[in-house]
Amino acid sequence: KMAAAAGAAAAAAGLWSEVNRCGQNGDFARALKSVNKILQINKDDVTALQCKVVCLIQNGNFKEALGVINTHTKVLTSDVIAFEKAYCEYRLNRIESALKTIQSASQQTDKLKELYGQVLYRLERYDDCLAAYRDLIRNSQDEYEEERKTNLSAVVAAQSTWEKVVPEDLGLREATYELCYNSACALIGQGKLNEAMKKLQKAEELCRQSLSEDSDVTEEDIEAELAIIHGQMAYIMQLQGRTEDALQLYNQIIKLKPTDVGLLAVIANNIITINKDQNVFDSKKKVKLTNAEGVEHKLSKKQLQAIEFNKALLAMYTNQADQCRKLSASLQSQSPEHLLPVLIQAAQLCREKQHAKAVGLLQDFADQHPASAAEIKLTMAQLKIAQGSVTKACMILRSIEELQHKPGMVSALVTMYSHEEDIDSAIEVFTQAIQWYQQHQARTNNGCCVFQPKSPVHLSLIREAANFKLKHGRKKEAISDLEELWKQNPKDVHTLAQLISAYSLVDPEKAKVLSKHLPSSDTLSLKVDVDALENSHGATYVRKKAGKLTGDNQQKEQGQGEVKKKKKKKKGKLPKNYDPKVTPDPERWLPMRERSYYRGRKKGKKKDQVGKGTQGSTTTGSSELDASRTASSPPTSPRPGSGAAVSATSNVIPPRHQKPAGAPATKKKQQQKKKKGAKGGW
Q1: Are the C-beta atoms of 150 and 179 separated by less than 8 Å?
Q2: H-run or E-run covering 417
Q3: Helix and strand numbers, DSSP H then E, in the chain
Q4: Whole-angstrom Cα distance, residue 372 to residue 366?
Q5: Euclidean distance between CA atoms 462 and 493, whole angstroms
Q6: What residue spans carry the region label Disordered (predicted)?
Q7: Which helix (H) or strand (E) holds 449?
């Protein structure tokens, strides 16, 4: 037995040497085989189990490694294997489990703290993540300091982009393209697009310099690394309205076929937003990129939500009503307080001509979520206007208390009521808005109510109300508003002039009294350039017109007043075949059917009488078979203008080819000219 034990120990020692050598060479697959042989000798060897877990992690077998840890929980306690377990859970996208594993560890090592920061970032707990990385940078001094600073800048950029937090200056030296890129993202979150573009251009330059130093890196590798920077550049172009440039850059990135599924999903989504309801075939192809495996682990919650919103809208634009309803309902269940899913559902109902149902859906949401009621009611009012129910739309708008006093809302309501010719309601809107400003004008100071001067918006509303009332004949009501304005600014000559004008229609005596407050003409400093006025276009035109008047015309104007200039009548054009000797047809202005000599169209013509010759010609056989046409029968009377009776022979001249009497000789020339310019073929 002792010999067997000694032999096993020697074999184990040899296997451990093999494991050590393979680990140093990075050959973890071969090291794993040796570790398995050691575990056959001693299945509960803690060191061997740890080495097996590490080898599996290095080979990317995270699920198998986690299985080994969970199978040997008695041997591999949380103190021994906490980091490896949390890392496997993190790589398997079990982020919540990884957080619990880290927090349950008795000792927080530097490795666990690094992983803790990554877990917090994935959970989008940016404030805690920022504190974790600051602590790491403060208490660590090793070769990974640059990576920690990059991660710290990424957290700040995420806060600026998703939480709209103004980033603080971390004082980081932007020596790498990763730091420049993160800084640009933070600037985009603040809306500083031009500065962000410059940062991205600097990041691109640094990236090219960094990668070109490695001789093994090809141009394709550099372009693949620059894809994310170019994607962000295209996003800035899209925000700036340069959609054509953005679309071109997006398509260039897709042609490179980058391995980052998150980047491809974001670019595809942005192309769909550019296409909107146009080019839906391209959008349906691009939407497949957003469904790639692993996308949900690469993007933030807001990015994924935006992609789902656009999928629902695309389904609506492509008339996939059931798919649109399914997607929007799923979004609403995930975010019950979010406004967009309900708006998509309402839009789909409107496309199906179910406006009443859409309004009901929006009303229910407004009742359940008062915080979003204003936006919902604005949409409801728009639907009512589309249906032609302007009065109902006004009622909905007036129910939005927080917007009643806004100048834009007042203007919209007054315009709509004016369109419906409801002047009383329009004036009531003005009155309520003015009263709101009067009530909120006062402020409390040591228990006393102190009134401040009227705000510019308040005064503007009063002036607009006065103008509206004057326009619609409400002079007395307008006078009170104008007096209020004049009291606020007695030096306002324009308001005083309006007030005098209004009083002149109601109380002329009062108008005379107020006119005394007008400044005299002597006090008015009219800065008028007389020479400039005389040389202006209008004045020159008047002088030229005046200069054309002759002396006789001036005398006539002085003696007889204005004399209207007689217009020369142009001679009417006569027809080409006009004959002054022939009396025109008095009924020529009437339609042919209404003329006294109209007999209607000839009926009963047999088809076999129509020959294949020239139009109107007859054949010899038909005349011979006509019994009425004998030698003794008298000839038919010729038509007016013809020379003699027409003989019934094959040489007959068709009526349309006959030359009418009195026709000008140039008729033939005119026909030849027409034929010359005509196209060949019938």
Answers
A1: yes
A2: helix 407-419
A3: 33, 2
A4: 6
A5: 16
A6: 544-682
A7: strand 448-451
Name the residue among 54, 48, 26 with its Cα closest to residue 36: 48
Tokens describing residue 520: 């005299």
CA proximity to 648, closest of 611, 620, 626:
620
**501 residue type, one letter:** S
Q: Do you know the residue count of the chain? A: 682
SS3 for 385?
helix
DSSP symbols for 498-566? HHHHHHHHH-HHHHHHHHTTSPPTTT------HHHHHTSHHHHHHHHHHHT--HHHHHHHHHH---PPP
Separation CA 438–CA 432 (nearest Å) = 10
Which single residue is written with the structure tokens 């989008």? Answer: 124
**Residue 445 bridge partners (DSSP):** 448
Q: DSSP letter at 42?
A: -
Q: What does the alpha-carbon distance between residue 565 and residue 546 come to, in Å, rounded to a whole number?
A: 15
pLDDT for residue 577: 79
Q: Is the confidence at residue 598, as pLDDT, over 90?
A: no
3-class secondary-structure state, position 283: helix
Residue 490: phi, psi to the nearest 5? -65, -15
Model-level pTM?
0.67
Instruction: Return the minimum-mean-pLDDT range out of 234-238, 399-403, 656-660.
Output: 656-660
* Region class of 660: left (phi > 0), else alpha (psi between -120 and 50), else beta: beta
pLDDT tens-place string over residues 49-71: 889 999 999 999 999 999 988 88
Distance from C-alpha of 473 to C-alpha of 193, rounded to nearest angstrom: 52
Nearest in space to 200 (alpha carbons), one of 246, 169, 231: 231
